[in-house]
Amino acid sequence: MVNLTKFSESLAELMQEQNLSVKDLAKATGIKGANIYYYLRAERLPSVESVIALADYFKCSTDFLLGLTDENTCETFKSCPPFSDRLDFLIKYFKVSAYKIYTHTYVSKARFFDWKRGKYMPSLDNIIKLSEFFDCSVDVILGRG
User: Fold this and answer.
1) How far apart are CA 47 and CA 98, in angstroms?
2) What pLDDT, in 10s, does the model give residues 28-79?
3) Residue 3 in 3-state DSSP?
4) Is 70 exposed, middle or buried (0-12, 13-18, 19+ CB in 10 A)?
């Protein structure tokens, strides 16, 4: 699960380091200013797309931004491939079955196969569940790193 307080603190710290206003960040990332205010007040869970846009803008890992790690490695990450392609890669690379993934992450079978077919993108909480299951970073799950 995303710790909204840690996410809020990380975002506020990154914005302060670059002397950015909410308006500036919204313009630079395409995220609505109102949503950024919600994130800063720890009132709303960001979408996967928003987390990626923010991490790309600040050149940090999604794990740092989400408060999953204290280490901020500034680097440029790859663009994310379609999640269905990434899920196929993870299944092959880690040599696990779809059944094992959806039963151990408590994701419904139908939802899992919707991701696999490219019908839906997982929520941020489900991306984190997958990173915990595979014991890797959120960026690896997303195909950024």
Assistant:
1) 24
2) 999 999 999 999 999 998 999 999 999 999 999 999 999 998 887 767 788 8
3) coil
4) exposed
Q: What is the pLDDT of residue 1?
A: 65
- Compute the radius of gyration of the chain from its Cα atoms: 15
pLDDT at 130: 97
The contacts of residue 20 (CB under 8 Å, 6+ apart) are: 28
Residue 143 near residue 59, CB atoms below 8 Å: no
> Residue range 98-116: average pLDDT?
97
Look-up of token digits 């790193």: 145
pLDDT digits 0-9 by tens, 111-122? 999 999 999 999
Q: Which amino acid is at 45?
A: L
DSSP, collapsed to helix, strand or coil, labels residue 115 as helix
Tokens in use for 50?
């928003």
Give the separation between CA 48 and CA 3, rounded to whole angstroms.
14
